[in-house]
Each structure stands twice: as structure tokens, then as C-alpha cells.
Target: NADP-dependent oxidoreductase domain-containing protein
Amino acid sequence: MRTIKFGSQRSVPVLGMGTWMIGEGRADRSDEIAVLQEGLEHGLEVIDTAEMYGDGRSEELVGEAIKGQRDRAFLVSKVYPFNASFDGVLAACERSLRRLGTDHMDLYLLHWPGSVPLQETIDAFQWLQEREFIRDWGVSNFDPMDMEEVWACDGGSACATNQILYNLTRRGPEFDLLPLMEEKKTPVMAYSPIEQGRLLRDSRFCDVANAVGMTPAQLGLAWVLRQSNRLAIPKTSHVSRLRENIAALEYPLGDDVLARLNELFPAPTQPQSLEML
Ligand code: NDP
Model:
């Protein structure tokens, strides 16, 4: 499987697992745990969660899924912007670690830009990093101006990622944010890579997938992962869909397919505000 590197850490596969809305009773809890464990079996290491998801219930479920195999997982969690003061970050991190049942996170992100001065949040991330409660830190939903602000902070160049909304129907970041991240050699995590399932209901898109012998989910994921330095974190509560999504990595996309997708979902020709879900 192709891999990607965050900060100073080991390389991880470019496909990870999202966990928004798990642990909330929408699906069978044992199925949700089984999906994460099956993913780890297949070598998918990155599990993305947040203190926000289900008020901590997602982190608790992830903790249950990785019990006894912590080292196989690369755990990513996020702090609310309103918890992003120095003391707030430390306390939020402690709560997340307790729910996850571990003594460290691999990557800890600021969930979206807020009103606490960034330098204060970064100082807290560094404090946690020095004590090995987190291996690396990053941000999420940061537009180009926000990223420049991060890099201008003391220690800001250590920012290991920006997790953003990116898929075929949300190509805005291609105009400015993705080139900027590339220039700074900072990898991007693409969230909602199949637009929370909505992309799969586009009949013209499904026709392209059929024509190349892929499922719509596989085509959507293969497109997001067509270039290096990107990781996608689709969420599913079905083991069969997880296996289907993993197989997306086996399909390189030809120029003709990319051209057809460009017709259906044109690349941006001017700056667009960064969208978030
Ligand atoms: P996704 O684009 O991953 O889509 C998830 C939806 O697609 C679910 O309804 C799932 O259904 C369905 N699905 C997944 N695989 C398949 C498949 N092969 N065939 C058909 N349907 C499929 O959306 P998310 O919003 O969940 O994004 C992924 C992750 O990104 C989140 O879980 C979260 O970890 C992160 N995220 C981060 C945000 C941020 O602000 N930083 C914001 C939003 C998300 P089912 O589960 O029933 O299989």
C-alpha cells in the first residue's frame, strides 16, 4: 500500500479510517468495532477521531477497538477551538487519552480556527509533545491565510498536517491551499472523501465508475489519492464496504478517466472560501 509520513513519524498507509458518528447507536456497536479491527488487520493504521464526535463516544469506541493492539494504530484526535487555551488543550488531551485508553496520541489537531491566539495553542501542543503525550500536532479546516499564520508562529513550522474537506465535489483547495501545502511539504488529510456518500448518488459519476469496472466509492477514493502527499479517511460501519474501499488503492486512474471527471467536476479557476462540514 502507498504510504505517507507525518512529521517525524513512521510512514503510514494513505488510506485511514474516519469515525464521525460512530458509537452513537446509528449502527450496531459490535459492527463498528469490527470495521476498525478489520482495518487494522488489513494494515490501515490511521484512525481519525475527535473529542467532538458523539461527545467523546467515538473516542471511547476507538479505545475499545484498539485494546491490546495500540501499536498497530496511528491515532489522530482533535481539540475543540474553544478548548484551545494552554490549560484547555492539556485538559482536553488528558480526557481524550483516557477515553482512547492510551498514554499517547500520534497526531493531535486543532479542529478548526478559533479565537484563542494560535501561539498559545501551539505552545500547549509543544508542551504535550515534549512529554510524549502526543507525537505530532496539526490543524484542520485552515485556509491559506490561516496556514500562513501557523507557519509564522514560534514552532509553527512543525505543523504536521492540515485536515480539510476535499473530494470531487469540493475541489476549491486545488486553487491555492493544496499548492501551498505542497510547497511547504506538509501532507494533507482529506476528510469526507466521498462527500458523506452523496457523491455515490451522482448518476453521471456512477456511469464513469461502471465504465472502468470500479464501484463509485472506489473511484471517489482513487481520485482523492491520485497524487502523493495525501491521505483519505473514509468512514464506514460495514466490513464489506471497508474491503471495497481498500481495493480502491489497486486502481491507478488513466488520463482518459481523469479528463472525464474534470468535465463532470471542473477544477477551480479562482480562489474559493474553504468549505467545511
Ligand atoms: P465520508 O465521505 O467518509 O462518507 C461516509 C459515508 O459514506 C457513510 O454514510 C458511509 O456509510 C458511506 N460509505 C462509506 N464507504 C462506502 C461504500 N464503499 N459504499 C457506500 N457507502 C459508503 O464522510 P465523513 O464525513 O464521515 O468523513 C470521513 C471522516 O473524516 C469522518 O468520519 C471524520 O473522521 C473526518 N471528518 C473530519 C472533519 C473535520 O472537520 N476535521 C469533518 C468531517 C469529517 P456506512 O457507514 O453506513 O457504510
